[in-house]
Design a protein that fits this description.
The structure is a single chain. With 248 residues, the chain is of the alpha+beta class. The protein contains nine helices and seven strands; from the N terminus they run ββαβββββαααααααα. A five-stranded mixed sheet has the order 2-1-5-3-4. α2 packs parallel to α5 and α2 packs antiparallel against α7. The mean pLDDT is 94.
Amino acid sequence: MRIRIKIWRQENQEDPGKMVNYTLEDINPHMSFLEMLDTLNEQLLQEGTRPVEFDHDCREGICGQCGVMINGRAHGPLLNTTTCQLHMRTFKDNEEIVIEPFRATAFPVKCDLKVDRSSFDRVIQSGGFISVNTGQAPEANGIPIGSPVAEAAFDAAACIGCGACVAVCKNSSAALFTSAKISHLVLLPQGQIEAQTRVKNMVDQMDKEGFGHCSNTEACEAECPQQISVLHIARMNYEYNKAQVLKK
């Protein structure tokens, strides 16, 4: 395949950045999208040009590091697919592919396609955990949890924190990410003890980071590679309002 690429190049946060065009010949359709970027970087290095910076880690759709905007869509044209799991056979020969970083006030661009998503880390640090006595481990069956509840908690915990929900939201809201992290703990008995302080701290931190309010367009769910439901946002709002009432 012959691929024409228009990709965002930005040296650092102070650099205004610009789109740059490249052409790749003989791209194997079975390559992953990130392998295509690796091929581009090999070409740039041979030309004595700085390679394109982009985030990646596991390349198995688990870590959430690889998110970019591809032709205006988070992670590309395929539903429920991370960037690293996208393959070049999805595109046509001689097609132009526009690649940009996720853009949001809370996701400042560090270099090229790399963005700073440490705001997500700070939201988690504010309350996305449970406090437990780290003495002797409790009996595994000591707290029976029904299968529907356990499955619902696992579904929420499937969020990989890629940031696609923020990138596609017109308000750059992190409501889907934050609500998923709140839901998977509040559904379980171990997480209900700190539920009130957790939801307040995490929502407050989300606002401090500069994320916008939920736009109710459900674009976040539509582009989420893990199919996280917007119903978690409703649960977060319920838990937050309940915490405010009980506080009074």
